[in-house]
Design goal:
By secondary structure, this protein is an alpha+beta fold. Helices cover 27% and strands 27% of the residues. The protein is built from 3 helices and 5 strands. The protein is globular.
């Protein structure tokens, strides 16, 4: 079980939950479980979400393990230039 903090619009899509405890061993499983539990998150995840684990941002690293007790934040991808 890991605790995940959802940032910005992600929390709104998760029925207002900014912190969620969920069973997942890696980023891929985390996204699958979140999609099942909160279907409104799926379009946002399809557009792209950055995952910060203990202060390091991972993008497109689906197999990255989620250590127990780690600080995990999901952030919507930012566009711009």
């Amino acid at each position: 079980m890991v605790e995940v903090t959802l940032w910005g619009s992600l929390a709104a899509a998760a029925e207002g939950n900014s912190k969620i405890e969920i069973e997942a061993k890696n980023i891929r499983e985390l996204f699958e479980r979140l999609s099942e539990q909160f279907p409104r998150l799926e379009p946002l995840m399809t557009r792209g979400i950055a995952v910060a684990i203990d202060g390091t941002i991972y993008r497109d690293t689906w197999s990255k393990e989620l250590p127990t007790g780690a600080e995990i934040y999901l952030l919507p991808r930012l566009a711009g230039g």
